[in-house]
Amino acid sequence: MTRQADRLPFFVYGTLRPGEPNHDAFLRGSVTTEEPARLAGAVLYEGPGYPYLVEEPEGGPVRGELITARPSAYERLLADLDVLEEYAPGDPRNLYERVVREVALLDGATARAWVYVAAPGVAARLRASGTAIGGGDWASSRPRR
């Protein structure tokens, strides 16, 4: 069980954003707030139908939403998002790592949040030969359905 102090909100920047395919499937009825937010020091890269976030000190900001889970839904949501993002603590086959980062809200406030970032091997491949998404906004970088 997650300690109360570790029940951080989630910064989402891809298919979990409002209007994207995984938003309703994973977040509907499980969140109390969704607020626009930005993450500095990162670059988005194109993936197979979803983006990867790669940490780069000079990158960013990446645009997304800060999602706060309902307390009663937190454990299930955390587990479901770990599966969706193909993350398991310590697994070298991870596509993503779940890390704590500071994100900025539009009113200037900041918040600590869970962020799924590209795992080291994935990040190295993307830096070497990936396609960066200009402007740090995956949703606006592609044609709408």
From TrEMBL:
InterPro entries: AIG2-like_dom, GGCT-like, GGCT-like_sf. Signal peptide: none annotated. It holds the Pfam family GGACT. Residues 10-139 form the Gamma-glutamylcyclotransferase AIG2-like domain. Gene3D superfamilies: Gamma-glutamyl cyclotransferase-like (3.10.490.10). This is Gamma-glutamylcyclotransferase.
